[in-house]
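Final report, Chapter 2: Outcomes

The project's central promise was a pipeline that accepts a single protein chain and returns its three-dimensional structure in a standardized token representation, suitable for archiving and comparison. That pipeline is now operational. To close this chapter, we reproduce one record exactly as it appears in the project archive, with the input sequence first and the structure output second.
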Amino acid sequence: MTDPLPYIDPFDDGRSPAHPATDMDEASSLIDAAFRFERAISRIGNARLRPWNMTLSSYTALRILANRPHLTLAQLSRRCYARPQTMTRIVTQLEKRGFVARGAHPESERALSLKVTQAGLAALEEMGTEVLKISDTLGAVLGHDEIVAADRQLRQAALVVEGELREMGRTDE
């Protein structure tokens, strides 16, 4: 077992005078921590990908397509947790760079299939080393078992919250 991590006040950006701890409950603190973590990952990922003029969102879409060829734009959008309009813009940029090609879908006459090109695969391999440094950093803070447990718990919590969202009839936000 590791020592407990110190409390980090989500309202303190480190530049303000010290304030007493807030009365935030544990679940609210976890939500804040998850949001802060997601933002930090996005910022470091975008910074690491800047030499290739890529964003973490574009890299993620390319990586998913490399592992799941022949996805439609809608399928890729869902897997990337992005709005279809955003995914259209990302795929168009990847296509202009020669990283992605659109073609006939093998299972549908109406749908277009997306596939990573050889240039896209080469770019992924080149960028992968930089992006994987994020995993190395996380691995230095948390052990393998802690990462696996946190992943499982966060995915389970996401399913529950997504179910609640569906019950509210709001699947598009």
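Archive annotation: The radius of gyration is 19 Å.
This record, like all others produced under the grant, will remain available to the consortium after the project formally closes.
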